[in-house]
Design a protein that fits this description.
- The structure is a single chain.
- By secondary structure, the chain is α/β, with parallel strands linked by helices.
- It has helices at residues 17-21, 171-177, 189-193, 208-223, 241-250, 275-288, 297-303, 306-313, 331-336, 353-361, 371-382, 386-392, 401-425, 461-465, 479-498, 536-542, 545-549; strands at residues 38-39, 58-60, 65-67, 69-70, 75-81, 104-106, 109-110, 135-140, 149-155, 180-184, 229-239, 261-265, 345-350, 430-435, 522-526, 532-535.
- The longest helix has 25 residues, at 401-425.
- Mean pLDDT is 88; it is low at 1-53 and 557-561.
Length: 561
């Protein structure tokens, strides 16, 4: 799949830390994407299998047959429904089974993105008003062989308000790692996270997007064999909000048994609102739309057009709700009390996560953060604790206010929460990493920055997929960087196959990656030509995790949570 996507440069806006962390789950490496359905026009799909290709183009799913296409290195199927359209009476209800069809369905069209306001942050630049969006895409090697392949289910980022599965081309990962990759859509914003007492008698309102993800995972369980995959070797993986979703599903009893391994890139244990807080938001949202009568509120909201809902939801934060049957506990609490699915977890962050958010909020508008603004934004974010944060991150210790603020975001919002997740989940098998390429390709063309972008938020995605999600092109890697990308693909896919990133598989041996365990656990530093374990104590010191431990979850809380 190599269709061109329009590149639109982001517009700068000025944000305090709490607001910038609202973009933490945005999957900003996604770039831009089209919201409307579009044909796949490149990749030279063949009418019949090329010589030596054994994977059939027609596959029979549990709902009917689908016909895919061949790209240069993979077999691809787009726009397969995994649930019924959640429209009209099914708006704000758990996902229902998709309808069966007769004949062969052409799976060569991308489905619409779920309803959302277009945003560079989510990677979907055009506003989508489609509620008929519960579809998935499947990528497999062109030759399956006799054995069953591991299946990797990608959950996109987008702050739970944006994004889509089609942004991510899984063909290279599937072909090179010899796995099946599935990318999914799920309901977003108010459509996915609205909570009201009248919405669901079982008390599960607020978790529709999470239930969609679980419905997609159930589809994989039912259909993996048809595509050559193993339902017992399913890995849920995602970045940012997708990473938070992975860990939410680990904490969800409803997802138990749906996946055997998990990969979370930059966002495990972000947490969400309680049911009470979410219902308070839900009532305010309903009032904003003029649905004030509690007895008729749900019916009133279901009559509202999509555009009105999108406009009204922008004043509120949205994410999966804790305290429901779907998500009984905040993920961090579930991990801490041993009430989560004990599947092996590979998770980590990027060395310079916060630099992208500072670039987006300041430099791209031609207004780098000033010393006075740095103090103001820390005060706005931390209130009575601002003085302590400024003392820990003095401007004298950094080349610019931009870099000081970026380090606060990196440490408080990403690195230290990730270390805590490692510690809480290590009993079930954790492999921790930090992506630390100091000069990854600038896939956003951020040429106006006054500081190096470094290993910023989402920059690892081009290494995992070996594609720039914006343009679906091969990144301009150096020889050492392409070697790192190949290494990461091997780590990720071997983990999906075996539960260990450096065990099994064929080809060249990989640098040793120890399990995060014992009294001196290690974190794998992923660096071109130098990937190796690093002491977690050194990692914690570099990111000032002892300091942030005193702040608890509030240091990285997202708006509205």
């Amino acid at each position: 799949m190599a269709f061109l996507r329009l590149v639109v440069r982001p517009v700068c806006w000025r944000l305090p830390l709490a607001a910038i962390l609202g973009l933490v789950a945005a999957g900003l490496g996604a770039g831009t994407g089209a919201a409307a359905a579009s044909p796949v026009t490149a990749g030279q799909p063949a009418a019949a299998a090329a010589p030596g290709r054994s994977a059939p183009l027609v596959v029979r799913t549990d709902k009917g047959a689908v016909r895919g296409l061949y790209a240069s290195n993979a077999r691809e199927f787009f726009g397969i429904p995994y649930a019924a359209p959640p429209v009209v009476a099914l708006r704000w209800r758990p996902p229902q089974p998709a309808a069966r069809w007769t004949g062969i369905r052409n799976a060569n069209w991308l489905a619409p993105a779920c309803a959302q306001i277009g945003s560079i942050a989510s990677g979907v630049i055009n506003t989508s008003t489609s509620e008929d969006c519960l579809y998935l895409n499947v990528y497999t090697p062109t030759v399956i062989g006799s054995g069953r392949l591991p299946v990797m289910v990608w959950i996109h980022g987008g702050a739970f308000t944006g994004g889509e599965g089609a942004i991510y081309d899984g063909s290279r990962l599937a072909a090179q790692g010899h796995v099946i990759v599935v990318t999914i859509n799920y309901r977003l914003g108010a459509f996915g996270s609205l909570a009201l007492p009248g919405l669901d008698a079982r008390g599960a309102s607020g978790d529709y997007g999470l239930m969609d993800q679980q419905a997609a995972l159930r589809w994989v369980q039912r259909n993996a064999h048809a595509f050559g995959g193993s339902p017992s070797d399913v890995t849920a993986f995602g970045e940012s909000a997708g990473a938070a979703s992975v860990c939410d599903n680990m904490a969800s009893p409803a997802a138990a048994g749906l996946f055997a391994r998990a990969i979370a890139e930059s966002g495990c244990l972000l947490g969400g609102p309680s049911q009470q807080a979410a219902e308070t938001t839900g009532r305010a949202f309903a009032v904003k739309l003029g649905c004030t009568n509690a007895a008729t509120q749900v019916a009133c909201l279901r009559r509202e057009p999509v555009a009105s809902i999108l406009q009204a939801q922008s004043s509120f934060g949205w994410s999966p709700v804790a305290g429901t049957p779907v998500l009984p506990l905040q993920p961090a609490a579930a991990f801490a009390t041993d009430r989560y699915s004990h599947v092996p977890l590979l998770q980590g962050t990027n060395h310079d996560e916060g630099r992208f958010f500072v670039a987006l909020g300041y430099d791209l508008g031609g207004h780098p953060l000033t010393a006075a603004e740095y103090a103001q934004v820390i005060q706005a974010s931390y209130g009575a604790s601002a003085a302590a944060v400024l003392a820990e991150y003095p401007l004298s210790g950094y080349a610019s206010p931009d870099l000081a603020y970026a380090q606060v975001i990196t440490d408080a919002g990403f690195s230290c929460p990730a270390l805590r997740a490692d510690e809480l989940a290590q009993r079930s098998g954790v492999y921790a990493y930090e992506f630390s390429d100091p000069n990854p390709p600038d896939d956003f063309n951020l040429t106006t920055l006054t500081f190096p972008l470094g290993a910023a938020h989402s920059t690892e995605l081009q290494y995992v997929f070996q594609r720039i999600p914006v343009l679906d092109t091969v990144p301009p890697f150096s020889a050492a960087q392409i070697a790192l990308s190949n290494q990461m693909i091997a780590y990720w896919t071997r983990f999906a196959a075996t539960g260990s990133p450096d065990r099994g598989g064929s080809g060249r041996a990989l640098p040793y990656w120890p399990r995060f365990s014992g009294i001196r656990p290690d974190i794998q530093e992923l660096v071109p030509g130098a990937s190796a374990p690093e002491s977690s104590a050194r990692f914690a010191a570099a990111h000032k995790c002892s300091f942030w431990a005193g702040f608890g979850a509030s240091a990285a809380a997202l708006p509205g949570q």
